Amino acid sequence: MYPQLKLDNQVCFRLYTASRLITQAYRPLLEPLGITYPQYLVLLVLWEKDNLLVSDISHRLELESNTITPLLQRMEKEGLVSRSKGVVDGRQTLVSLTKKGIRLQEQAKDIPSCMTGALSHSSLCENDARTLVSTLDTIINTLKSND
């Protein structure tokens, strides 16, 4: 057995596991709102800045357009967003929050503090969390530059 192939030596496994468990922890917080975690991420982007092109949302979420389009279609059917053709370029699609999507922001406002509270039961302090965010940003930016 090669030591470099041991599961315990893989950073990617820890990142994958942490991501899966965080997504799982969000589920009970998002269920009352009737949204999934990927939908929540789209809403976070649109709550920051509404009326964005699909390509802008894709870029912000580090997802391909062909991944986000079906998600936006479902969100449109659920009345959370509306999609329209771009005025300048009809090949582009503009995504806007509906009244229902805007109202969800009020309902979602306490979700980040709930997650912070859930993590505060661990030995992870606020400074550790900031360092973790910075480290993850470095990993993301490094991997993006290798594309």
SSE layout and pairings?
Elements: H1 11-30, H2 37-48, E1 52-53, H3 54-61, H4 65-77, E2 81-85, E3 93-97, H5 99-108, H6 111-120, H7 126-145
Helix pairs in contact: 3-4
Order of helices and strands: HHEHHEEHHH
Proportion in β-strands:
5-15%
Q: Examine the coordinates and then state which fold CATH places here, giving the name of the CATH topology of the largest domain.
A: Arc Repressor Mutant, subunit A
Main β-sheet, spatial strand arrangement: 1-3-2
The total count of helices amounts to 7
Low-confidence stretches: none
Number of domains: 2
Number of strands: 3
What is the correct CATH architecture of the largest domain?
A: Orthogonal Bundle
> Can you summarize the main beta sheet?
3 strands, antiparallel
Structural class: mainly alpha
Radius of gyration: 18 Å
Distance between the termini: 31 Å
Shape: globular
Q: Report mean pLDDT, rounded to a whole number.
A: 90
CATH superfamily of the largest domain: Winged helix-like DNA-binding domain superfamily/Winged helix DNA-binding domain
Helix content range: 55-70%
CATH hierarchy, class of the largest domain: Mainly Alpha
